[in-house]
């Protein structure tokens, strides 16, 4: 048996057996181990797998004050990347692989090319980053010119672990109890836009979600309570 039979077995676990996401992934991991380390015949890509539904968790979101406290503890390139994650709603690798031609300062737009799902989209560019980004582009432009003089091809985009470690240190330095990561800044971008009254479909387009149901998760973490409902303790007393 090969990839086709493994695919059929794992799909059957979901469709007929109705197993959980973790059980299906455990089965996949066990089969990958069996073929690679026991049978000495590594499996190729198992494409077309019908995946079980994973657990739906409410994302961690920072308040505006918490975001400001974290950003204040960053500097240099990690600060610039973190600002793009929060103020443009980018994923970490989208920010790190962004090219000069993807930024339109005149229209205040960022074009994300081949984001998640290989989809292109346009998102907002924060006006207050115009100066810092222009300075950054000037610096890397000079660096690029020096690289061209040597004739060596060696430079790549910033490694994601540099930003992740810097942000983790900033979260601890800011004294936050929340388990905030780089993706938390993207979650905060979406939630704060919804709090400001922007339409959920507009936020969906900025984030690049395929379905509005994915964006709907942010309605559960709005400051005014789940689905906008107020606690009975906060309601005025009955007349």
Supply the key terms.
single chain, 239 residues, mainly alpha, DNA polymerase, domain 1, hpI Integrase, Chain A, 2 domains, 3-stranded antiparallel beta sheet
In words, what does this structure look like?
The chain has two domains: 55 residues, DNA polymerase, domain 1, CATH 1.10.150; 163 residues, Intergrase catalytic core (hpI Integrase, Chain A, Orthogonal Bundle), CATH 1.10.443.10. By secondary structure, the protein is mainly alpha-helical. Helix 4 crosses helix 7. The mean pLDDT is 83. The protein has a three-stranded antiparallel sheet. Strand 1 and strand 2 form a beta hairpin. The chain is globular. The chain is built from ten helices and three strands, in the order αααααβββααααα.
CATH class of the largest domain: Mainly Alpha
In total, how many domains does the architecture comprise?
Answer: 2
Strand order of the largest sheet: 1-2-3
Please tell me the overall pLDDT: 83
Number of helices: 10
What is the CA-based Rg, rounded? 22 Å
* Low-confidence sequence ranges: none
Tell me the major beta sheet: 3 strands, antiparallel
Just name the CATH architecture of the largest domain. Answer: Orthogonal Bundle
CATH superfamily of the largest domain: Intergrase catalytic core
Q: Quick one: how many beta strands?
A: 3
Provide the fold topology.
Blueprint: H1 3-15, H2 21-38, H3 64-71, H4 76-88, H5 92-96, E1 103-104, E2 109-112, E3 121-124, H6 130-150, H7 160-173, H8 182-195, H9 200-207, H10 212-215
Antiparallel strand pairs: 1-2, 2-3
Helix pairs in contact: 1-2, 4-7, 4-8, 8-9
